Amino acid sequence: MSAEAADRVAAVASSRPSTPLQTSWFEFLLDGSLLEKHLKKANPDPTPVQLIVQFLEQASKPSVNEQNQVQPPVDNRRNRTLKLLALEVAAHMKWDLDVLEKGLTIPVLNMLLNELLCVSKVPPGVKHVDLDLSTLPPTTAMAVVIYNRWAIRTIVLSSFPEKQTKPGPHQMNVLYKTSCLQLKEQANDSISVLEGALQLKKDFYVHTLRTLDLLAADTAANGETESSTAGLCISADELHCQVHYDVGGIFFHQGCTDQTAYQKARDHFRQTKDLLKKLDSTVHVHLDEKRLAGYWNACKALTEDCDSDSQTTAYDQINSLIRAHNYQAVIEAFIRDNVTHSLPNHFRQSVLREFLYKVQQGESGLDEVCHKLCICNAIRDSLEGEVLSVRFQQLLLKPNKWMVDFILEVCTLSLEKEHLSETLRRKIGNFIKTLCENLEELPLLFVVSSHKLFIELLKEEERKVLMEQMRKKSATINLSAKPLPSFYDIPASATVNIGQLEQQLILLLEPRKIRQTLIELHGLAERSYWKVNNKWEVPPDYINVILSIKDNLTKDLVYILMAKGLHCISIKDFAHARQLFTACLKLVTEFSPKLRQVMLNEMLLLEVRAHESMTAEGSKERPPPDLVSRVRGYLEMRIHDVPLRQVVGEECVTFMLNWRENDYLTLQVPPSLVMNNPYIKLGQLLASTCKELPGPKESRRTAKELWEVVVQICSVSIQHKRNSDGRLSLIKHRESSMGILQRYFRSMSHFMLLHSIVRVCSSASPCLQAVDVEAVAVTVTELVSYALTLNSNNQSWLITQADIYFVTNQYSAALNIYLQAGAVCSDFFTKVVPSDVYSDQVLKRMIKCCSMMNCHTQVAVLCQFLREVDYMTAFKALQEQNSHDAMDSFYDYIWDVTILEYLTHIHHKRGETEKRQIAMKAIGQTELNTSNPEEVLQLAAQKRKKRFLQAMAKLYF
């Protein structure tokens, strides 16, 4: 017994509870009879596919000569035996490609089947398409068929996006793309080989454990074993059935670029179906009959084959109707299917997607068809207890009368079934309830609530709740909605007239009609009509002034005109806002100078926002001189007892800054305003700094003063006192000043201003203990995000964005942005990244990101980038065994010999021979020889830096 086997026996004896240890691969080499015994176990450990991987991995290991050079695997008895063992395991599995494909990667299975070709005496160097299968020995011909079946199946399977999760040797995984490319290039040859196999009418034989053992025992058999019938017999019909299925799959795959391929696929699938009916048992046929049925239906639809079956399926009927452009019949078929449930949901959804695609391609007249099919599918979903689709919910956002009528019609027809269960009735009742909750327009709600389904399917309590919701909705209709004439077809009465007029008041936007409606309402009942809609809001600063108006009609009119005008501004309907505000100004001018000034201020804010909106939409037109003059007038205004909204002052200052009225703010504004108006003071500081920015030395004084004010604004404490120079402190206006900062920085084009302020004043920072960190974080986050939408390649802002992610523990996102910052300033790392971008501080944060993501090899590589290599961090990272990066694939990027020597020591200590050899190979590169001139060593480091950063970018971008 070997020493390792003895250790394993001792481990079994000492472990509790006793668990059978996994059989090692080398034990099968020592005992020739062990493999068959192992495979006959109920649950062998390792499993058959795991054994194939282990055998081939060991047989394909490269060797290392005395000069530490990696050599191809040696062709010796050990490796040949391992390959034969892998074939014997596959033979035990009866060469079931379904199982082998699920358990093995493409490179591993490619290697296995090439070994099968080799032992089956397939002539080397001869293309399979040039072989005459009828003249080859049975097992030789079968090996060719199996390989080419796998080739075309792999082309189809590899076309689906799927993460590679199957086990396999590392050196094989890197061959994945190469293998797929080679198979695709040989696809036509593989199809020809299999079509040739379909012409053979004799039985086929495939290798078994027994025939492979015979081959191993008598290597000079010269094909005798292959010519015998000792292998597993597979009838011609069984093989043809499987080959037709596989060839049909590759033709269907090619149909997207060659429409005639669908007809070929259809013919092969027809042959597959016919042979399946003919075969009594299908021991050696491995296909998914549901998938075959799907292929068959798809081919018939794509080739317009209507006479392929004696019976026409529901799928065929729908496809025929679509080809005939009989769309109304398709809708009727969907409605009938809501009762019969003969069509699966995924098919119904695919039909809808097909119509939506037609609409997208510009085919006209199909919008209503799409809407009706979407409604039919939504009701089917409700009947099956599924969640309503997003598309249907979007449809309910813009409903109309015919749509609601059609929904109710389909619901009614979907319930026309004998002995309908109470459960289905309840589900449709819930659907009707959902419909009512989503509809906003009262006339449409009345249509639903008056329908018989509403009364029959909903309980009385539910109906009461819904009716109450409808009543509330009548007072909250959107201001911009248009009144529907049908709503007013109500019997006249005093109560109805008031409700009718109130509804009209909510909807109107014309000042004259609003006034006329209010006069009529006050004639019917004297009450406060400004309360009719709880969505009407005026600023708190003005409420007391408006509500102090004695005449109730005037009070209602002023309140409603202002509220509607403010709403129109919020939705950028500036034309209606101007009409409403102009009428309100004309009204209040007659009796209240205070309200007149309020309206003038609001109209100024309206014009400022209207011009900002034009600028946001791309207009570069400067504001008219009249508007600039009015803004100046507001800032200099001094009228006592006039309520002033804070936002007006903020936006006026921001307006002057955005349009670079710096001379006014710095030279022309009266000193008294600077001392007493915090908005003006902050604006003046910002304007002064902007003017003097080109010369850092000259701007130091103003920038320092601005910096101190910004720190004050961001401070937590509230101080209600004047400074030593008698001026009003900006701290107590913190909220307002923060608003100015945020508005200004989100609007200005020179986003580097704040960075420059920090740079200039970094040596003169005041005490920052009272700074509200959260307020600063919110402001900086918003500022940086907006800045990057305008200049996404500014490395300074990218680094700041990455820092934000870093401090909020979003390490992957932070590393992504750090890499972006380096890429934009180095032409994707083809040049050296400037040291002011990848400073030691930034590099240490990148190291921390990699460490927190368990990418420890990347940590070690980045430690070399520092001015002084951080060996302690690098060594600690390399000691980690649970690394989530590619580990040894990063060794080529290490140029520090000390780190590489430590790597070889670690791998030697752990017994990781392969990884140690990779590390030694990296050390052995002549350009890393410490005796080289410094220029050579620097060039080697720069080359590895560039390749590493490019690899990281591809990994994280």
From TrEMBL:
Q: Name one GO cellular component term.
A: chromosome
Q: Pfam families, per this entry? A: TPR_INTS8
List UniProt keywords, sorted A-Z: Chromosome, Nucleus
Does the record's keyword annotation contain Nucleus?
Answer: yes
Q: Where in the cell is it found?
A: Chromosome; Nucleus
According to the entry, every stretch annotated as the INTS8 TPR repeats domain falls at 496-743, 763-956
Q: Name one GO biological process term.
A: snRNA 3'-end processing
Looking up SUPFAM superfamilies in the UniProt record yields: TPR-like (SSF48452)
Q: Which InterPro entries match?
A: INTS8 (IPR038751), TPR-like_helical_dom_sf (IPR011990), TPR_INTS8 (IPR057980)
Lineage: superkingdom: Eukaryota
The record's section on PANTHER family has: INTEGRATOR COMPLEX SUBUNIT 8
What family is it from? Belongs to the Integrator subunit 8 family.
Name under which the protein is recorded: Integrator complex subunit 8
From which organism does this entry originate? Takifugu rubripes (Japanese pufferfish)
